[in-house]
């Protein structure tokens, strides 16, 4: 992305950025997990979950625009410098995980296509090829023509969604086929909320360069909500009709052949770029002397290696792990910033033990709600409870600080 010129990204830039980010094999596969709910209840869970999750995502982005700081740097407001370091480490780990998940998901789909078309069955080679494309995309991220290239990519990806939607909705079995499996509405809602939540530690890395707050927030909401919801619906429909949400099968059925291969690679690259780039930005919160692009390239290489050596297939537990950490974290930060009007980063604050303790409590509560199979999922009740607790106790816990010692003491 062209990030050298400050504050130059428009609403259109953010709409295409987040629409492109949402169109991925991983999001389609996540939508397929909701198939046991059936199409009507699954669709309801997707829409409600994405309204909540995307709205939370955009609130985090507004902080980045107002303060012109990356996402993980903004956590210093509530948790102090060392607290932000802890969350930076966790975020780098989740971004490396996402990079690997995206690459292996895309590689499996592409491999399925080449195996059927040409009997070419080499998953490792496709992982390396997709990783190489992401590497090039990150390298071009500083090029002034990136925004135009991204717009073209999004147009092609939009055509992909149209093709997949046509394949899904022309099938009359979609609305009346007997579904297999067991899932509660709360579980489906949580899987829809947690996907946009996973982008919360990233969004300010981009919205800090927005021309206007309205453009950054509005474009991000529209692009991600419609893109991600659409992908979930496609995955849901494919899983109901054919018990296989992998888009490669649908694209082959549409006789797209080589075009299908290119489309899946493009979808994987445009999304995984954001993971790799933000891993670099987050790493700079720990080691500010490094260059963003250099670190992002290293993260791409590590993520590609993980995709090859680690068997990453089921990532429902991975999504829950992300939610358990970042739901309470951002509940506290958003409460501080928007309700308590605590918007300053205090350079002397190293750790706020009270907010860190609340995060630990929130993580425990998250898994309790997962076990309860609560109708509102886990993210919504946990964020509400932690926000209320923080609002009530901040005058006391706000004093539980570890601060830099003054040179005069």
From TrEMBL:
<keyword id="KW-0812">Transmembrane</keyword>
<feature type="transmembrane region" description="Helical">
    <location>
        <begin position="12"/>
        <end position="35"/>
    </location>
</feature>
<keyword id="KW-0472">Membrane</keyword>
<dbReference type="GO" id="GO:0015209">
    <property type="term" value="F:cytosine transmembrane transporter activity"/>
</dbReference>
<feature type="transmembrane region" description="Helical">
    <location>
        <begin position="152"/>
        <end position="169"/>
    </location>
</feature>
<dbReference type="InterPro" id="IPR030191">
    <property type="entry name" value="CodB"/>
</dbReference>
<keyword id="KW-1133">Transmembrane helix</keyword>
<dbReference type="Pfam" id="PF02133">
    <property type="entry name" value="Transp_cyt_pur"/>
</dbReference>
<feature type="transmembrane region" description="Helical">
    <location>
        <begin position="116"/>
        <end position="140"/>
    </location>
</feature>
<feature type="transmembrane region" description="Helical">
    <location>
        <begin position="85"/>
        <end position="104"/>
    </location>
</feature>
<dbReference type="GO" id="GO:0005886">
    <property type="term" value="C:plasma membrane"/>
</dbReference>
<feature type="transmembrane region" description="Helical">
    <location>
        <begin position="221"/>
        <end position="243"/>
    </location>
</feature>
<comment type="similarity">
    <text>Belongs to the purine-cytosine permease (2.A.39) family.</text>
</comment>
<feature type="transmembrane region" description="Helical">
    <location>
        <begin position="41"/>
        <end position="64"/>
    </location>
</feature>
<feature type="transmembrane region" description="Helical">
    <location>
        <begin position="375"/>
        <end position="396"/>
    </location>
</feature>
<dbReference type="InterPro" id="IPR012732">
    <property type="entry name" value="Thia_CytX"/>
</dbReference>
<protein>
    <submittedName>
        <fullName>Putative hydroxymethylpyrimidine transporter CytX</fullName>
    </submittedName>
</protein>
<feature type="transmembrane region" description="Helical">
    <location>
        <begin position="349"/>
        <end position="369"/>
    </location>
</feature>
<feature type="transmembrane region" description="Helical">
    <location>
        <begin position="189"/>
        <end position="209"/>
    </location>
</feature>
<feature type="transmembrane region" description="Helical">
    <location>
        <begin position="295"/>
        <end position="312"/>
    </location>
</feature>
<feature type="transmembrane region" description="Helical">
    <location>
        <begin position="318"/>
        <end position="340"/>
    </location>
</feature>
<feature type="transmembrane region" description="Helical">
    <location>
        <begin position="249"/>
        <end position="274"/>
    </location>
</feature>
<dbReference type="InterPro" id="IPR001248">
    <property type="entry name" value="Pur-cyt_permease"/>
</dbReference>
């Amino acid at each position: 992305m062209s990030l050298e010129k400050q504050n130059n990204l428009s609403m259109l830039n953010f709409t295409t950025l987040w629409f492109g980010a949402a169109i991925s094999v991983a999001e389609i596969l996540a939508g397929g997990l909701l198939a046991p709910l059936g199409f009507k209840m699954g669709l309801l869970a997707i829409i409600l979950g994405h309204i909540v999750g995307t709205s939370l995502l955009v609130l985090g982005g507004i902080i980045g625009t107002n303060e012109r700081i990356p996402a993980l740097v903004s956590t210093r407001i509530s948790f102090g410098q060392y607290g932000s370091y802890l969350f930076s480490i966790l975020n780098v780990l989740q971004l490396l995980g996402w990079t690997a998940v995206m690459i292996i998901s895309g590689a499996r789909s592409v491999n399925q296509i080449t195996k059927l078309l040409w009997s070419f069955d080499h998953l490792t080679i496709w992982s390396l090829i997709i990783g190489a494309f992401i590497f090039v995309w990150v390298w071009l991220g500083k090029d002034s023509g990136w925004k135009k290239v991204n717009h073209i990519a999004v147009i092609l990806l939009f055509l992909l969604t149209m093709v997949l939607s046509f394949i899904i909705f022309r099938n009359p079995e979609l609305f009346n086929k007997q579904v297999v499996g067991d899932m509660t509405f709360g579980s489906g809602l949580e899987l829809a909320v947690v996907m946009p939540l996973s982008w919360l530690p990233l969004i300010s890395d981009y919205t800090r360069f927005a021309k206007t707050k309205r453009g950054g927030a509005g474009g991000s909401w529209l692009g991600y909500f419609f893109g991600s919801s659409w992908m979930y619906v496609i995955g849901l429909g494919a899983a109901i009709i054919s018990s296989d949400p992998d888009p490669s099968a649908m694209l082959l059925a549409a006789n797209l052949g080589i075009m299908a291969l290119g489309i899946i690679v493009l979808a994987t690259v445009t999304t995984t770029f954001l993971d790799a780039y933000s891993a670099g930005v987050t790493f700079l919160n720990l080691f500010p002397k490094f260059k963003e692009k250099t670190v992002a390239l290293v993260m791409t290489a590590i993520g590609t290696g993980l995709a090859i050596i680690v068997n990453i297939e089921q990532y429902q537990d991975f999504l829950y792990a992300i939610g358990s950490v970042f739901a309470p974290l951002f509940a506290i930060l958003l409460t501080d910033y928007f309700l308590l009007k605590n918007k300053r980063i205090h350079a002397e604050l190293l750790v706020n033990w009270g907010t860190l303790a609340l995060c630990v409590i929130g993580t425990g509560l998250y898994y309790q709600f997962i076990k309860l199979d609560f109708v509102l999922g886990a993210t919504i009740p946990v964020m509400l409870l932690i926000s209320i607790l923080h609002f009530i106790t901040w005058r006391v816990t706000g004093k539980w600080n570890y601060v830099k010692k003054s040179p005069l003491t």
